[in-house]
Amino acid sequence: MAITSGICISFKKEILLGEHDLDTDTIKLALYTSAASLSDGTTAYTTSGETAGTGYSAGGITLTGIDVTTDSSVAVVSITDAVVSTATITARGALIYNSTQADKAVAVFDFGADKSSSNGNFTIQFPSAAAATAIIRIKSS
Prior knowledge:
Blueprint: E1 6-7, H1 9-16, E2 27-32, E3 61-62, E4 67-71, E5 74-78, E6 82-98, E7 104-124, E8 136-138
Antiparallel strand pairs: 1-7, 2-3, 2-6, 4-5, 5-8, 6-7
């Protein structure tokens, strides 16, 4: 199995159809082990390969501080860092998905290696919302 990072192809289409509102919909982040099979072809949240452990609940955590803006000609999204408190878990990647819209997938991220916490905070740090660094960005070719 493998996790391959990317903005989900289905999300790109659905955003143009007006199916996602990142300002008002509930956007979640689910964590996955290396046993998961996720890529830009992922269309919805799945429990297959999802992380299990103390402090983490299936379905993941609700993301906060989501702000959609532009940097030059690029649409960018900022997200407040996400924390799973007092967790004993291992994760290889994550899926951001829209739980308001039938758990539709937004983006997949491979951490590059297993990341773990042992009875401590498991923190996902999001990069700044700039054209070259935002975790979710839409630009012309």
